[in-house]
Amino acid sequence: MLTDRELDALLDGAAGVRDADLPALPAEVLTAVTADAGLSLVVAEPASVLAARQLVADAHEARTTSRRRPRRRTVVRAATALVALAAAWTTAVVVGSPQEPGSPAAPSSSAPASPGGIALVAAEAVTFPVSLERTPAGLTPFYSRRGGMPQYGDTPPFHVAAFLSVDPETGGPGAAGLGQVVLSLYPEDPRSSEQYGFWPEGDPTGSVTVDGVEAGVWLQDGVLSLLWQRADGRWVWLAGEGPQASTPALVALGGSIVDRPQPVGLQFGLAPAGWSVGGYEESRSLDLVSDADPSLSLRLSVVGPQYTGTIDALLDGMPTAAPTEAVPVQGRDGRLALLAGDLGSPPFWTLLGRLPDGRLFRLLAPQELTREQVLQIGEQVTAAP
Questions:
Q1: Which of 347, 348, 379 is nearest to 120 (CA)?
Q2: Rounded to 5 degrees, what are φ and ψ at 80?
Q3: Which residues partner with 362 through β-bridges?
Q4: Mean pLDDT of the chain
């Protein structure tokens, strides 16, 4: 339904910053994040926020060209990556494997089916699968789910939590000197595929015991990394920078990982029956995909607080298949448009609304959903501040 070209055009319009305004950065990245947040970040390419993502310059290229192995230092410097995520625009729709806790609930009579047979149901909370009982002091977690489709790497889905210093007043970078931590959880050894973006090069330089299990240790360019396999078969990569690049500190954090799911920042209250989580970027985008037809996807994204334009400006230049409607969304002014598809693809819906904190959000939905269903879904989306 939605091509990368269509989504790029839509999301460029939502950005307060353009790719051309961003400084060139040395490593490849998968997703686009706003620039000039005054932060430094490095990320591993297709995936995760893997150590949190390197600001954008190569973002669009990474989405549209073949993937290459990340260069050295495509790891942590998470500070800007995810902080910028909250203020950023979004990337192409993620269509991931639909086998994730937090998928929409089973069919119910929450809403009538569309003419094509799609019914809306109450959605379960989308969650990140683990928690840290000892969250690093002063750092805030940002959660992502990556993999599962070619645009984001052909690996099985995996998860990344970046713990960053954030100013609670501005949402920007917080106190200097706190360092940062990135926790990645994989279904297999991340060294098995370059697309996981596992960064430390060569063999581990040592080993430690984490929660009774031997873990490899790497120290490169000021980033300390631990890698081990849990008893349940999943692999953990834990990386720290700054004051967090301490073996005792990371061993303690690794031992505090518990299987306690955490809700992510964006949520659907209603969702199509039989659709599952495709992927998410904390405070930035959340994707659902039809289990029966993966070409059908639903994306919720938040426009960053830096955006100062009007709601109508977000539709400027977008070819419409029907007149744009002014509609109430969650009691505030909104817009509903049926956008013309590109290259023979069918039209699709975009709904613009405003959250209680003033940020704008966008919902992209296939034409298989009715106008009324799109509005119903928009009424019940939420986003953490």
A1: 379
A2: -85, -30
A3: 301, 352
A4: 75
